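Model the whole thing, not chain by chain.
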Amino acid sequence: MAETVLELDDLTVRFHLRRGDLTAVDGASFSIERGQTFGLVGESGSGKSVTAKAIMRLIPAPPGEIPRGRVLFEGSNILDKSDAEMRALRGRRIAMVFQEPMSALNPVFTVCDQISDALRTNLGLSKKEARERVVELLSLVGIPSPQKRLDSYVHEFSGGMRQRVMLAMALSCNPNFLIADEPTTALDVTIQATILELITGMIERLGMSLLFITHNLGVVAHACDRVGVMYASHIVELGDKREIFARPQHPYTVGLLNSIPRLDGQAKYLTPIAGSVCNMMDPPTGCKFHPRCSHAMDVCRREIPRLKEIAPGHLAACHLHDRGTA
Amino acid sequence: MAPTADDTLLRVKGLTKHFTLHGDIYSKLAGEKTQVLKAVDGIDFHIHRGETLGLVGESGCGKSTTARLVTRLIEPTAGEVTLKGENLLGFSRSRMKEARKEVQLVFQDPYSSLNPRKTIMHILSRPMEIHGLVRSWAEKRERVLELLRRVGLGIEHIDRYPHEFSGGQRQRIAIARALSVDPELVIGDEPVSALDVSIQAQILNLFRELQKEFGLTYLFIAHDLSVIRHISDRVAVMYVGKIVETGPAAALFDKPLHPYTKALLAAVPEADPAKPAPRLTLQGEVSTPIDPPPGCRLCGRCPRESAVCAEIAPPLVDVGDGRQVACHNL
C-alpha cells in the first residue's frame, strides 16, 4: 500500500457574505498518495480552487470559515496548525503554481530577487548561494540561457516562460507536494503541451505528489493518475483516470464527456447538459445536479447522495447507484 | 477555381494590416527606427454561401484583426474584401451601413459586449431601429420575443438587464442581437471560448441550428481546435499574420500537411487517456509579428526547414482536393 501524503476528510468551506452564506466546498473527501497526480476537475465555481486554497490555508477568515473537516498532510491536520507552523510548511513542503503568472509574480522585482527571497528565508542561503541556486532552477525548468535571464523582470518573459518561472519558484525549496491551479489555462495549446510535459516530467523525476486543478478534461486525461470531478461544491465522482474516462458513473461526468467536441470524426450535434449551474447562494435541495439531470428521481430532490464505491477505487455520488439500479 | 459571384459570399484577397509602433520619445531621440507589427500580412480566403469557415490559430496570429478588417471596424493597409461580388472597401458611408446589416459579429466576452445599462428589449431592438426594419412598438416587441424564443430564452427575460443572466445566456442574447437584422454572414470571434464546456456545447448546437434554419454563413474564429473541427466545413490555419493551410475540415484534421498544422494538432490534449499524450513538435516559441524576417514565419522552429525557407515566404498553393498549403518542403 502506497503512502498517503494528503488526505481530505469531509472538508467544508463556507463564506459569510452580505447576501447570505455560500458553501463553496461541501464535504470533500479524497486522498493523494506519494508520487501520484490527482486531477480535480470541474467547471467555473464548482469549488476546485477554494479546495486548493483551503489546503494551503489561504482562505481569508472572515468571510471564509471551515466549519467541518480535516486536511491531513503527512498525517497531521493542517487546519490545527499555528501560523508559524504553516509558514514552515508553505513553500518548503507544499508549494503552489497559479493560473496567472503575471498576477502571481511581482512586477517590480527581478526573477532572481523573487526566487532567492524564498530560498534565503526558507533555507537560509546567502545571497550568492541563492543566486547560484536560482540559475540551477531556471535551467531545470527549461529557460534558455538562465544566466542572462536572471535579472530580467516578469514582463520581459512570454506567457509560457512566466509559467516556467512560477514553477521554478514553486520547486525552489524542494517541496514534496505541489498544487497546480489551472497552470496551463492561460496558455496557447502548443505552450500548454510543453508546460504539461515539464510538470509531469518534474513530478516523476523529483518523486513529488501533485494536485492538479483544471477544467480541461483533455489535460486530466494525460497529466493525472486519479481524478475527482466536482460539481457545485460536491465531489460527485472519484476514481482512476482510465475508469473515469471509460466508465463514467455520475450523470454529470457523462454529460461533461459528451459535451466535448472531438478532434476525430464529427457528431453534427453535441449532447450538452441541459440548463445551467445552480445559483450557489440558493442551491437546490438534495442532489445539486438534479435540475439538470435526465435521470432525476424523487429521492434526488430530497436527499444529497453520498459517495459510494461502485467498483474498486471508483466512487460516485448518485442515487442511481443506490440499489444497483444503474 | 474561377470565382462564381453567386456562390461566394465573401472573398478576401491580399488582406494586410500593418500597425506602426511609435516608440517613446527616448527611442526617437536615439534615432531608433519605427517598428512595424504585421498583424495580418497578405491573406486570401473565401467563404461560400451557407458554409462555415473556421479560422484557427494561437494568440496574436491575427485572427481577430481579420474579423475587424472584414467588417471594416478598422481599415486595412492593403488588400480587397468583396461581399457578394462588390468591393466592400470602396463602399460609401451609407452603403457601408447597409452592408453592416448583412455582416454581423458575435464577440468573445458576453460580459463586455452587452451594455449593462440597457434592457434586453433595448439591446435586441436597437439594431432593427437603426436599419429601419420595424415600424411600430408592437412589431418591435413581437420580433424581440421571437428572437428570444429562437435562441432559447423566454418572454420573462425581455425587460431584464444583462447582469441578471449567466455567461451562456448572455451569449445567446449576443447571438440574438446579431440575428435581429437578418444578416447573411455572421462572424463569431471566439464566441464560445469564455464558456464552460457544458454551456459551450449548448451554444455550438445553437449556432448549427440557426445556420440550418436561416441559411447563415459563418466565419468562426477560435483557438480551440476541437471546436473548429466540430463547427467548420472548411478551415484556415493562421500563424503570425499568414494563412499556412486551408482545406475541408475533415481532410485537414485527418491528414494535416503544413508542419505548423501538424504541430498544433499534436499539441491538443484529447479527453481520452488512450490517445497519444500532447507534445510540441516545433522548437522554441511563437515568432514575433514585429518586423518579421522575409522568409517563412515558421523559420527556426520547423523540423522540415531548408535553405530557401529563410529567403522566400512560401505562397499558399493548391495541392488538390480543395486544399492549399504554404510550405516549400511538402
